[in-house]
Amino acid sequence: MTRTEGAGLALAPGALTLGDCRRIAAAQLRLTLPRSAKSAVRAAVRTVQNVVAAGVPAYGINTGFGKLARTHIPDARLEQLQTNLVRSHAVGTGPLLDDAVVRLVLALKAASLARGYSGVRWEVIEALIALHNAGVLPCIPAKGSVGASGDLAPLAHLALVLMGEGEARVEGVVVPACVGLARAGLKPLKLRAKEGLALLNGTQVSTALALCALFEIEDLFAAAVAIGALSVDAARGSDTPFDPRIHALRGQPGQSEVAESYRRLLAGSAIRRSHRVNDERVQDPYSLRCQPQVMGACLDLIRSAAAMLANEANAVTDNPLVFGDSGEILSGGNFHAEPVALAADTLALAIAEIGALSERRIALLIDATLSGLPPFLVREAGLNSGFMLAHVTAAALASENKSLAHPASVDSLPTSANQEDHVSMATFAARRLREMCANVRTILAIEWLAAAQGIDFHAPLKTSRPLQALHARLRQQVPFYAEDRYLAPDIAAAERLLLGERLTPYVHHLLPSSP
């Protein structure tokens, strides 16, 4: 198991948890690797050396790459082969990956290589850890990978820094790679046989992007459940649809667990007690009543994707693979990032639905005929427009997410002269999740403002204690909307709260990366 030591993390190759990955992404930690991993790493290096000495053709060790795999490379030029590979493949473009993603990429790559199936020296793995621990983060452009053979272009930019070329970011400042290496106490590496290929092959970039998005989605999911419960009370909705007997009959695990969270969040609400009898409304609209069904299904998808990404975080995904125990080098396709692409596409569906349901609740709250609240949640409607355009913003973002949710994994564009004739598009599949999360964060911020407004209109009746705390947390930053004012800062303030803290203890225990 991975051990936590103060502000550090002792990595166990092959046994990283989602919680470990969340911690690495969230803050600069000191990472260490167990000395026990050295024997397998060194056995794999000896196997590579034996193959070279025997002159046996082995892909990427003494041959060219991709379509050029039949080209034999003489022993005297094997180091140049690896150097050329890194330089020629560092062709990424677009904005740089952020610090959280790059930290996780470094950790995942080091942990994968340390399993001892890649044929790289221990010094190479130590250099990756040294970069991470010194806060020297390779500048990795976000675009340029099709997700097979691994994340070649992005990882080439990482490997380039180990060679003393390219650029790194230190405390937000871009510096030449040689400066970054010096800060980490390193000298430029001369890559030996197989090492450049092992660094470039692999799914660590797409996996890190997907994991960082997963952690955001988990937090947004929890916020959506809490804010959705607040909307139930704001609209004077019923808690009957959350009765456990209903959900037991369906047998969907996420649905039952989420329904329990709604019950706990709403328990003790004076607003609910005020209309428990003699309420002429027989049933609530689906956006209130069917929250356990929708959010529970999203939770099940999140868990499924998380399990796949947890496996990938611990995987050995370069090629060929070196088996030091038998002295064999086997060429396969673990670099194909289809699991990551499918997991990311699954998460896209979940986050799009979370946002879509929230948008519908905003629409309900501003509609006086459905909510029983003042039109557009403001007094003197007509003179004041209230939340009219805030809902339009939410609708626009929910619509954007419908397009972004289109699966990336169904696309494939052959590369390398048709040698790589099916690719995963995993890197884009994962990267687009961050934009979807940003959209949903804004939608939820608007719903939080709208639901809090609705709760205020029910005074002196109070909601439940957990939801009172949720309401009060917002009101510490954003006052009641008494009349029209510049509303964008209110939305931004609610977004900052959503980004900076967990809103409720009643949901996070359901999520895959929770302790």
Question: How does this model look, in words?
Answer:
It contains 20 helices and ten strands. Strand 2, helix 1 and strand 3 form a beta-alpha-beta unit. It is mainly α and 515 residues long.
Give the N-terminus to C-terminus distance in angstroms: 14 Å
Give the integer mean of the pLDDT values. Answer: 95
Strand-residue fraction? Answer: 5-15%
- Strands ordered across the widest β-sheet: 1-2-3
Largest sheet: 3 strands, mixed
Low-confidence stretches: none
Structural class from helices and strands? Answer: mainly alpha
What is the ordering of alpha helices and beta strands?
EEHEHHEHHEEHEEHHHHHHHHEEHHHHHH
Dominant shape = elongated
Percent of residues in helices comes to: 40-55%
Counting DSSP E segments of at least 2 residues, the number of strands comes to 10
**Spatial extent as radius of gyration:** 26 Å
SS element count, helices:
20
